[in-house]
Design brief:
single chain, 4-stranded antiparallel beta sheet, Alpha-Beta Plaits, alpha+beta, 27% strand
Length: 111
């Protein structure tokens, strides 16, 4: 799996337009083959900041998407940002849930 996270700070006059673009983008992206999740978050402590999070099944699905015309909308919003966006792609072969918390709390992972 590959996580894509883009955090952007938007200028006051650009927020509504950028959020409208990203909301429509999110809805279309969720339906694509290989997209496991696509979410848009707002920062409660920094109202001008938004984060677009995508989770992809594999690198080929992500690469197809990054090269698509649809992804151009994300690039457009990144250009609208008032500061350089933070962009991260994290690849993982393992995804853990509550079992990680349980293991850490019962002491079995303490060396």
């Amino acid at each position: 799996m590959i996580w894509s996270n883009i955090r952007m700070t938007l200028a006051a006059g650009q927020q509504k337009g950028a959020i409208d673009i990203l909301t429509r983008y999110r809805e279309r992206t969720r339906c694509l083959i290989g997209c496991l999740s696509c979410r848009l978050y707002y920062d409660a402590l920094e109202p001008k900041a938004v984060m677009l999070e995508e989770i992809w099944s594999d690198e080929s699905a992500l690469n197809r998407h990054l090269a698509s015309a649809s992804y151009h909308e994300v690039l457009l919003v990144m250009e609208m940002a008032s500061a350089s966006p933070e962009v991260r792609f994290v690849q993982s072969s393992e995804c853990l849930g509550f079992e990680k918390i349980e293991k850490a709390r019962d002491g079995s992972s303490i060396v």
